Amino acid sequence: MKESSVHISPAALVKSKIGDYIALVKLRLTIMVVFSAGMGYVIAAYQNFSWSELGIVLFSGFLITGSANGINQIIERKLDSLMTRTENRPVATGRIKVFEAVIFTTIMGVIGAMLLGYYLNQLSAIIGTSSLLLYAFVYTPLKRISRLSVIAGAFPGAAPPIIGFTAATGYFNELCLLLFAVQFVWQLPHFWAVAWMLDEDYKKAGFRLLPSLKGRGNESAVYIIISTFILLPLCAYFMYANFVGPIVGGLMIVVTLNFLYQAYMLWKTENLKEAKNLMFGSFYYLPLIQILILIGTLFQNV
Predict the structure, then answer these.
(1) What is the DSSP string of 190-221?
(2) Which of the residues 48, 70, 172, 237 has the least number of beta carbons within 10 Å of its own beta carbon?
(3) 30-75: per-residue pLDDT in tens?
């Protein structure tokens, strides 16, 4: 009998390749990061808003973030193959060759930084480039060495809103630093909730991401609830500094209290269900807070 061969059409091959590149840049994560950069721009530029500048911020942010995510997969390709969650990533499986991924991610990062520097300003380009380098070459290798990797990763992770803000203004100010602080602190319960969910899988690759050496348990839960609590005074300061009015500020406090309650439930139960609730709660917490800040800056008496 003749062996049957499966014919794959060129269209199917192209579709598969596009899917691999989407996985390489971690599209959903990248979109969330780009949203923060866009919000940073709009909050800063609401009086001198430009659609073309916003477009550059979003596109540059996509390129820089996608580049960082791709470099992360290049560096961790052997480790990714050890974990159930990441074993099918395109570089880990060889569907995208290392050299191919290096060229693609380098071009993305360079173009993203150049667009910011040429069309907007050098400060935003420097922050964008620095965040890429910190994420790819500091946070990524540190994940197997120290629990402080999450702290290190929070710096580039909190860069998007200040990239957008400085792209609009060319400088830092108190509001810009507050946006950075909120996103920095938010990442701690967010990443630790993810690490709680995936602790066993992460251990296969030797990753140390939970704040306690004991892993899941009361000590890690205490760190999570403390970091979440810090968001309360940060949100209150927006009202104190008159960046938002009492209604918007009150809503920010309510949203934060709900997030804190989810962290409290994880501390109380120490189970995977509550870790999952906190993880999903973190997904909507940050955009909600940023939208409220935008409303507060547009209508400062509200």
Answers:
(1) HHHHHHHHTHHHHHHTT---SSSTT-SSHHHH
(2) 48
(3) 999 999 999 999 999 987 899 999 999 999 999 999 999 999 999 9
